[in-house]
Amino acid sequence: MYETFLDEDWGASTGTRLRRPYTEQHVYRASPMGHLSALRREIKAEAIAARGDRPVITDLYALGVEPINSHLRAQVYAEGQGFTVGRRFSDPNGAADPTQRPGWLEMCAHIAGGFAHGIVVVGPSDISSDHAEIEFTLRWAQEHSAFVDFVLASFPVPPQTQRAR
User: Fold this and answer.
1) Fewer CB within 10 Å, N side or C side of the chain?
2) pLDDT at 8 (0 to 100)
3) CATH class of the domain whose range is 32-161
4) Can you tell me the distance from the alpha carbon of 91 to that of 26, in angstroms, rounded to the nearest whole number?
5) Residue 72: what are its φ and ψ, rounded to 5°?
6) pTM for the whole thing?
7) Rounded to an integer, what distance in angstroms lies between the CA atom of residue 138 and that of residue 132?
8) Per-residue confidence (pLDDT) for residue 165, from 0 to 100
9) Residue 157: what pLDDT?
10) How far apart are CA 124 and CA 121, in angstroms?
11) Of 121, 136, 104, 118, nearest to 36 (Cα)?
């Protein structure tokens, strides 16, 4: 571990230095969204497994002036996952803090009351731009035996609007 060396620049002097017992390794940290994605998948799997053979009811939430497109995307995704769609909630515009949005609070009360088992939103920005707030929401849902899921599929294009080849 210790090594004696001859320092040629300083004449005949010797010295002792500490050698590292390991090689330099780069430390890679997961991005905040990577961490949240893994947490989201874990909580979702746990909540669905707890339901057993019973249907999983999901509420849909959208943030924006015209929530119909977001609700449609969320519905297509939820039904594709085999979930039953419950109620739709939305806020036309929202504070950064989701607890200041009436539609969000109503949906949370619906989940806390056990009327639905999941929340489907188009993306994390419908909840918040703050990663800590998104993690708090995921863990809150977990405490209520529910989950939060983000739409991962692209918006389906109706057959009549597709170009002929």
Assistant:
1) C
2) 54
3) alpha beta
4) 44
5) -65, -45
6) 0.72
7) 10
8) 47
9) 47
10) 7
11) 136
Which is nearest to 150 in space by CA: 114, 125, 115?
Answer: 125
Separation CA 105–CA 32 (nearest Å): 25
Terminal CA-to-CA distance of the chain, rounded, Å? Answer: 70
Residues of the chain with pLDDT under 50: 1-3, 5, 10-11, 18, 153-157, 161-165
Tokens of 70: 């977001």
pLDDT of residue 115: 96
3-state helix, strand, coil in the chain (%, to 5): 40, 20, 40
How much is the pLDDT for 153? 42
Residue 58: how many CB atoms within 10 A of its CB? 27
Are 47 and 117 contacting, i.e. CB atoms less than 8 angstroms apart? yes
Amino acid at 110: H
The one-letter amino acid at 39 = L
Domain ranges of the chain: 32-161
